[in-house]
Design goal:
This protein has helices spanning 94-105, 109-115, and strands spanning 5-10, 13-23, 26-32, 36-46, 57-67, 76-86. It is of the alpha+beta class and 119 residues long. The protein folds into 2 domains: 5-88, Porin, CATH 2.40.160; 91-119, no CATH class. Strand 2 and strand 3 form a beta hairpin.
Length: 119
């Protein structure tokens, strides 16, 4: 089980979110100050098995930052999420680790390219 806090190490400084809800296989964390709020949701589900495909475990992490209105700038959201879908017995994190390393090794250039619609 994850702890009662979740620390996001942002370039502007760490943000500590506090767990505000836990229901079965999901949790919700919150940080809020005068300028913005962060909500992180962690969910675990299973896909439906079919004749040709077994049920897979699905793990989802979502972070939504709401930047509050200030002056002429209206309130807006930024959302990031990822999902891992694997068989229950498969504990490999090689693909997730590889993508995380790609983002870090590129000094975020990979993400900037994505935002520029490159593919």
């Amino acid at each position: 089980m994850l702890g009662n806090t979740l620390v996001l190490p942002l370039s502007s400084g760490n943000i500590t979110l506090v767990k505000i809800n836990q229901d079965g296989y999901s949790s919700e964390y919150l940080f809020r100050d005068a300028t913005h709020q962060f909500i992180a949701r962690i969910r675990h589900t299973k896909t439906k098995a079919t004749l040709n495909r077994p049920s897979y475990d699905r793990h989802n992490v979502e972070v939504v930052q709401t930047v509050f209105a200030s002056g002429a700038v209206l309130e807006y959201d930024r959302k990031f999420y990822f999902a891992i879908e694997q068989l229950a017995w498969d504990t490999s994190v090689v693909n997730v680790d590889g993508v995380a390393d790609l983002v870090i090794a590129s000094s975020n250039a990979f993400l900037v390219s994505l935002l520029a619609w490159e593919s």
